[in-house]
Each structure stands twice: as C-alpha cells, then as structure tokens.
Amino acid sequence: MKQALGARIRSKPGRSCCFRRLSLSLVMGLIVLWPVVAPDAATGGVPTYARLAVQVRRLWDRDTPFVLRHAGIIPQPPEYVAQRVLQALDRHDVPGVMRFVDHSAPKAHQDITEALYRWPPDMLRQPGCWGSVGPYQQEAWFAAVPAGSVRRVPITLSSPRGTHELILLLHFNGRGWRITGAHYRQSPESDS
Fold it and tell me: Which domain of life is it from (predicted)?
C-alpha cells in the first residue's frame, strides 16, 4: 500500500507539492499548538489564549525566519555572514573567509587580506579569549532589503592582552551579503 501511495504521489507532481505543503503546515501547527494543549499546560493557571499568543509569537520570531532562510526564500542577515567569518577565523581558515568576499568590488580582496594579516592568528583558541559579533543594526526579518544596501558589522576578539576588532563592510547584491571591505583596529591592553 505504501508503494502504491508513493508511486501515485511521484506520478503527479502537483499533488506531491500539495502533500509537502500540507505536511509542513501540520508540523508547524503541532509546533504551535502542542505546548498549549499539553496535559501539564492546564495546571499552569495561564489562560489558553495567552499561551497560544506566546507560541505564535515565538514561531513568527524564531522558527519562520529560520525555515525561510534555510530554504533560500529570504537571504541570510549580515550578522550571519559575520558569524561564519568568525568561525572561519577560529579554524584559521582563510579560504573560508574569502568565500564571503565580493571579488568584483574594487580593493575588497586587498582590504580583507591586509586586515587578516594584522588579525592575531593564535588568540582565538587560547583560554581566556572569546570572539563576538556586534553590535550591529538588527532589522525585522520580513523587511525587504534593497539591493546595494551597506552594513558595518564588527567582529571583536577580547582577551586580557587587549581587544582586536575586524570591522566588515557588507554589501547586499540582491541575493545575499558579501564583504566589500574590512578594517582592523586594536585597542590598548586592558588593566588587570
């Protein structure tokens, strides 16, 4: 019976697409409604409409953008690119950083190469060192970003020996964010 059902779904692409959409809708509905109708939810004392509102807000803010970005329907935000660059720096993966550079931009390759040359390669994996992304301009995920938009996202590496900052200049080309420039800055050592 399963084989016949599978053959029927595969033979009709329109139904296959509808079946996928229906199953995705059911899964999303379960994600939203399960904490509301769970057996232990009735003893909490919070009204059902309040629990439902919290779940819908959580789905809208957290799960929906993740699903849409993973499917490629909306582009990843600029801080995602900066986070991937920080992970590549932690692995000492310079080609991984260069994958996000817009090589058609003038001097982009030169700027990022100079900044990476000055970036301390041995600090991120040492105890007492930590990297962070931000502060950055955070936008609503459903807002349309016009092509040609530019954002500055800093990557900061802090340690007792001082703070290193790699400021990325990101450009939106209509499909995603690419690095068009970088600037390295080091602040003096912190007092211990």
Answer: Bacteria
Q: Which amino acid is at 143?
A: A
Contact of 163 with 186, CB cutoff 8 Å:
yes
The arithmetic mean of pLDDT across residues 176-186, rounded, is 89
What pLDDT, in 10s, does the model give residues 71-91?
A: 878 888 888 888 888 888 888
What are the structural domain ranges in the chain?
A: 2-70, 78-187
DSSP class of residue 62?
A: I
Query: Cα–Cα distances in Å, from 60 out to 46, 72, 74, 137, 173?
Result: 21, 17, 14, 20, 26
- For 8-35, write each residue's pLDDT tens digit: 555 555 556 666 777 777 777 766 666 6
* CB contact at 8 A, 152 and 168: yes
The residue that leads in pLDDT, 5 or 129, is 129
Look up residue 55 and give its amino acid.
Answer: Q
pLDDT, tens digit, for every residue of 43-54?
666 777 777 788
One-letter amino acid of 104: S
Phi-psi category of residue 174: left, alpha or beta, with phi > 0 → left and psi -120 to 50 → alpha: left
Residue 67 has a pLDDT of 81
Q: Tell which CATH classification among 3.40.30.10, 3.40.50.40, 3.10.20.30, 3.10.450.50 matches the domain 78-187.
A: 3.10.450.50
